[in-house]
Amino acid sequence: MSHFPFATTDYPVFLAPMEDVTDASFRRICKDFGADVLISEFVSSDALVREVDKSLKKMAFSESERPFGIQIFGHDEQSLRGAAEIAAARQPDFIDINWGCPVKKVVGKGAGAAMLRDIPKLVRLTEGIVKAVPLPVTVKTRLGWDELHKPIVDLAEMLQDVGVRMLTVHGRTRSQMYSGQADWTLIGEIKRNPRITIPIVGNGDVDGGERALEVRNLYGVDGVMVGRAAIGNPFVFKEIKNFFEGKERPEFSFADRVSTCLRQLQTAVEIKGERTGVLEMRRHYAGYFKGIPHFKETRVKLMTALTLAECQSILLNSLEHFAVH
Known about the structure:
By secondary structure, the protein is of the alpha/beta class. The protein folds into 2 domains: 13-244, Alpha-Beta Barrel (TIM Barrel), CATH 3.20.20; 254-322, Orthogonal Bundle (Non-ribosomal Peptide Synthetase Peptidyl Carrier Protein, Chain A). Helices cover 45% and strands 13% of the residues. Strands 1, 2, 3, 4, 5, 6, 7, 8 and 9 form a 9-stranded parallel beta sheet that branches. β8, α9 (209-219) and β9 form a beta-alpha-beta unit. The longest helix has 19 residues, at 254-272. The chain is globular.
């Protein structure tokens, strides 16, 4: 068993960092339902060194969120080192580098998954960050740029050699974005490499307890990271934990969903202000109320509501109509 650079369980379940999704309001709820390790939304290194207020705020976390990592991304050596130092001053448990984000606006600037086209630079920048901060440095990346270029097995060794303390691999290439199925075979190959001693965390299509246990048994990963399956569904962590412990799948009533959703909404507004809190909450409603018959009209109301009071009223009124579920 590889040892994580922070205290945690034998087979930790991570909440994946997701832009405008994994803010503090959502992270805390996921923690309550069993997420073992939390990571900030990703933070631009260029914005951090320029002291952009929104980016500085993204690094904020509470003690209850530990073990907690701050994730940074960028392409410039100087700004990445500077950003890592700024992030380390907040005293998270680790600094995570994003070399895997596939979105155009990030890749277009040479950051995120774009770095998978220049492995020597990726390794050099990573080493610079490892040397710049006293905290453990971890990396999240993908298999490679496209079907023909998947350097991840060799890259894992290189990253370990420059001091990276944990590697998370999303089982897709950049060109796949989020389409198709995640391929875990190369993640398993990394784990079978006798030279690899750092923990390897697998990411991609982990949507419940059964899959979380399956990838552990098939590929030997040291932990799993849950991304899109958690959006509007913090309950997935409780389901995974119950599955590991041989307990029954937990049932969450409609009232449970409404109360959890309300708690997240209220915290989001407290932290980010009413306008941003209400708008960013919209991406969670589909997850919270998935599978509830005839809920579409209510969801449309939630997606167009502009104030906290409006959203609260819609959610509380829905209890009278849907509480039987």
